[in-house]
Specification:
It is a single chain. Helix content is about 30%, strand content about 35%. The protein is of the alpha+beta class and about 150 residues long. The chain has a 6-stranded antiparallel beta barrel with strand order 2-3-4-5-6-7. Helix 2 packs antiparallel against helix 3.
């Protein structure tokens, strides 16, 4: 998959352009696969579309508008994952404890149920856009990532 990725220097040059923010990256393979991002300032779930025939991810994303309530739940869950990631890198927890610390596992499961319920209630209104990602100078999990969404030609 060939994504449009840029450095922090390129981001500084593009400061005047309309950019949206990547808030979470739930899966990553040569670029963000899914998570939560803004589209024109509104929170959306994004999912990279996989082309079965080509056996690769496209540069096209399916986007679903979510409520502020749902966004807040995603951000709480993201905090749980970030705390797990820090503990994992320090060797405090094993990989099989992913994606939550033992003391946060129950809340993480509750969040999954709440998020699934809210996203299904949303009547699944989707739009499809191409993404141009702007990377921070030192990439980390969604910190300072930005995206410029483009209409698709399909």
């Amino acid at each position: 998959m060939q994504l449009h990725l840029h450095s922090k220097a390129a981001l500084a040059e593009r400061r005047n352009e309309d950019m949206d923010r990547i808030y979470t990256i739930s899966n990553y393979y040569d670029g963000p696969i899914d998570g939560v991002a803004s589209v024109n300032g509104e929170p959306h779930i994004y999912k990279c579309i996989f082309d079965e025939k080509e056996d690769e991810y496209l540069k096209i994303y399916s986007l679903q508008l979510i409520s502020i309530e749902c966004f807040d739940l995603f951000m709480e869950q993201w905090g749980i994952w970030l705390r797990w990631e820090v503990a994992f890198k320090r060797g405090v927890v094993a990989a099989d404890s992913h994606p939550a610390l033992p003391e946060e596992r129950k809340r993480n499961e509750e969040l999954n149920e709440l998020i699934n319920s809210l996203t299904q209630e949303n009547n699944a209104i989707f739009k499809t856009l191409k993404a141009e990602f702007m990377l921070p100078e030192t990439p980390s999990w969604a910190s300072l990532w930005q995206v410029k969404w483009h209409e698709t030609n399909t």
